[in-house]
């Protein structure tokens, strides 16, 4: 068995080779210094752009100081896993059909947290089997981690004007995960940041003008935040702009020219489930809470709960043509036990009345 202290370069090579063998799309290594990104984070929080995501404020600089989160951390192994599902319905066509619901392409299959965390655990196991025990912890969007900043610093890509990580070879349809570790690994070089140039396609495409400046997103206006993170009432000012987007939003990625280089995922767990790539809004609206729980078990959508799911669909139905089926579906929940659902159904019925 090799020793870690004597072979850091060989270990780094082993880590990347093993990551590739485990099906990870890219793997690179960086240190823990995130001073510039910490300043950006604190300014973003001071502006209140995190909305009701109180945990962002509560965790503070633990997010930008990895050793504060996991003492002893000196290196971050950052990985990418492509997720765009092959054979899924054309995204633009779904968005253009108001009778269908649009679900962000990352959420069409199995919950990525489980898939990627399991892969990172296997990677750590391979390292320990080859080099001995070491300190580590795997993260997949589940703790105060600046995953995009770490991935950028490791050279996996650069943070684009829409605040997502971009790769000139893989676009942006991918998940990120990290192994915080005490391994003394050599670090990789970051890429030049300014690949976006003068392009502003993502800024212009945002339905709710959430990208308030290049590299600066006001989450309170973002459809992903509104449909996933926000509990309770969705502000009326954003409802029309939401269109038929019922879980997340991909508009900024759909227009990004670098996504012509993206590749479909090879991970079967990310294949489309429950026909969520082009679902009928009225069919989804009929789901009971038990239907939601059984069909969304193992999906990232599960965590928003049935109430928010129906709330989102009610808005989409309010933005759809006022057909007999749409009106009947909405009226079926006009006396729903949930006050939140009733409020959004009432709004939606008012919208359909305006189009009759």
From TrEMBL:
<feature type="binding site">
    <location>
        <position position="222"/>
    </location>
    <ligand>
        <name>[4Fe-4S] cluster 2</name>
    </ligand>
</feature>
<comment type="subunit">
    <text>Monomer.</text>
</comment>
<dbReference type="GO" id="GO:0008616">
    <property type="term" value="P:tRNA queuosine(34) biosynthetic process"/>
</dbReference>
<dbReference type="InterPro" id="IPR017896">
    <property type="entry name" value="4Fe4S_Fe-S-bd"/>
</dbReference>
<dbReference type="GO" id="GO:0031419">
    <property type="term" value="F:cobalamin binding"/>
</dbReference>
<dbReference type="InterPro" id="IPR004453">
    <property type="entry name" value="QueG"/>
</dbReference>
<keyword id="KW-0560">Oxidoreductase</keyword>
<feature type="binding site">
    <location>
        <position position="256"/>
    </location>
    <ligand>
        <name>[4Fe-4S] cluster 1</name>
    </ligand>
</feature>
<feature type="binding site">
    <location>
        <position position="141"/>
    </location>
    <ligand>
        <name>cob(II)alamin</name>
    </ligand>
</feature>
<keyword id="KW-0846">Cobalamin</keyword>
<feature type="binding site">
    <location>
        <position position="231"/>
    </location>
    <ligand>
        <name>tRNA</name>
    </ligand>
</feature>
<keyword id="KW-0671">Queuosine biosynthesis</keyword>
<keyword id="KW-0004">4Fe-4S</keyword>
<feature type="binding site">
    <location>
        <position position="199"/>
    </location>
    <ligand>
        <name>[4Fe-4S] cluster 1</name>
    </ligand>
</feature>
<dbReference type="Pfam" id="PF08331">
    <property type="entry name" value="QueG_DUF1730"/>
</dbReference>
<dbReference type="GO" id="GO:0051539">
    <property type="term" value="F:4 iron, 4 sulfur cluster binding"/>
</dbReference>
<feature type="binding site">
    <location>
        <position position="63"/>
    </location>
    <ligand>
        <name>cob(II)alamin</name>
    </ligand>
</feature>
<keyword id="KW-0963">Cytoplasm</keyword>
<keyword id="KW-0411">Iron-sulfur</keyword>
<feature type="binding site">
    <location>
        <position position="165"/>
    </location>
    <ligand>
        <name>cob(II)alamin</name>
    </ligand>
</feature>
<feature type="binding site">
    <location>
        <position position="249"/>
    </location>
    <ligand>
        <name>[4Fe-4S] cluster 2</name>
    </ligand>
</feature>
<comment type="similarity">
    <text>Belongs to the QueG family.</text>
</comment>
<keyword id="KW-0819">tRNA processing</keyword>
<comment type="function">
    <text>Catalyzes the conversion of epoxyqueuosine (oQ) to queuosine (Q), which is a hypermodified base found in the wobble positions of tRNA(Asp), tRNA(Asn), tRNA(His) and tRNA(Tyr).</text>
</comment>
<protein>
    <recommendedName>
        <fullName>Epoxyqueuosine reductase</fullName>
        <ecNumber>1.17.99.6</ecNumber>
    </recommendedName>
</protein>
<feature type="binding site">
    <location>
        <begin position="249"/>
        <end position="250"/>
    </location>
    <ligand>
        <name>cob(II)alamin</name>
    </ligand>
</feature>
<keyword id="KW-0408">Iron</keyword>
<keyword id="KW-0479">Metal-binding</keyword>
<dbReference type="Pfam" id="PF13484">
    <property type="entry name" value="Fer4_16"/>
</dbReference>
<dbReference type="InterPro" id="IPR017900">
    <property type="entry name" value="4Fe4S_Fe_S_CS"/>
</dbReference>
<dbReference type="InterPro" id="IPR013542">
    <property type="entry name" value="QueG_DUF1730"/>
</dbReference>
<keyword id="KW-0170">Cobalt</keyword>
<dbReference type="GO" id="GO:0005737">
    <property type="term" value="C:cytoplasm"/>
</dbReference>
<feature type="domain" description="4Fe-4S ferredoxin-type">
    <location>
        <begin position="183"/>
        <end position="216"/>
    </location>
</feature>
<dbReference type="GO" id="GO:0046872">
    <property type="term" value="F:metal ion binding"/>
</dbReference>
<feature type="binding site">
    <location>
        <position position="202"/>
    </location>
    <ligand>
        <name>[4Fe-4S] cluster 1</name>
    </ligand>
</feature>
<feature type="binding site">
    <location>
        <position position="252"/>
    </location>
    <ligand>
        <name>[4Fe-4S] cluster 2</name>
    </ligand>
</feature>
<dbReference type="GO" id="GO:0052693">
    <property type="term" value="F:epoxyqueuosine reductase activity"/>
</dbReference>
<feature type="binding site">
    <location>
        <position position="196"/>
    </location>
    <ligand>
        <name>[4Fe-4S] cluster 1</name>
    </ligand>
</feature>
<feature type="active site" description="Proton donor">
    <location>
        <position position="141"/>
    </location>
</feature>
<feature type="binding site">
    <location>
        <position position="206"/>
    </location>
    <ligand>
        <name>[4Fe-4S] cluster 2</name>
    </ligand>
</feature>
<feature type="binding site">
    <location>
        <position position="176"/>
    </location>
    <ligand>
        <name>cob(II)alamin</name>
    </ligand>
</feature>
């Amino acid at each position: 068995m090799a020793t870690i202290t004597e072979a850091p370069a060989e270990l780094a090579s082993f880590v990347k080779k093993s990551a590739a063998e485990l099906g990870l799309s890219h793997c690179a290594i960086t240190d823990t210094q995130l001073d510039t990104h910490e300043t950006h984070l604190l300014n973003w929080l001071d502006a209140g752009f995190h909305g009701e995501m109180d945990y962002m404020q509560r965790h503070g600089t633990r997010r930008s100081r990895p050793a504060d989160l996991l003492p002893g951390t000196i290196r971050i192994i950052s990985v990418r896993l492509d997720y765009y599902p092959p054979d899924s319905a054309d995204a633009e066509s779904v968005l253009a059909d108001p009778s269908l619901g649009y679900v962000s392409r990352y959420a069409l299959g199995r919950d990525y947290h489980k898939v990627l965390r399991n892969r990172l655990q296997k990677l750590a196991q391979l390292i320990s089997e080859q080099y001995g025990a070491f300190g580590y912890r795997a993260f997949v969007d589940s703790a105060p981690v600046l995953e995009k900043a770490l991935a950028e610093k490791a050279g996996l890509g650069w943070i684009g004007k829409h605040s997502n990580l971009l790769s000139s070879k893989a676009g942006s349809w991918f998940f990120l995960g990290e192994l915080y570790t005490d391994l003394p690994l050599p670090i990789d070089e970051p890429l030049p940041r300014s690949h976006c140039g003068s392009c502003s396609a993502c800024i212009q495409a945002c339905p709710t003008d959430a990208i308030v400046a290049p590299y600066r997103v006001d989450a309170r206006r973002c459809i992903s935040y509104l449909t996933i993170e926000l509990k309770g009432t969705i502000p009326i000012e954003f409802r029309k702009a939401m269109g038929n987007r019922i879980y997340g939003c991909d508009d900024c990625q759909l227009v990004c020219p670098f996504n012509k280089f993206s590749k479909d995922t090879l991970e079967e767990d990310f294949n489309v489930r429950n026909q969520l790539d082009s679902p009928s809004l009225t069919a989804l609206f009929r789901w009971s809470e038990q239907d939601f729980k059984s069909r969304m078990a193992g999906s990232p959508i599960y965590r928003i709960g049935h109430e928010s799911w129906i709330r989102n669909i009610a808005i989409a139905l309010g933005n759809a043509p006022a057909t007999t089926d749409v009106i009947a579906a909405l009226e079926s929940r006009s006396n729903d036990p949930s006050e939140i659902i009733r409020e959004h159904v009432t709004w939606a019925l008012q919208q359909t009345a305006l189009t009759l």
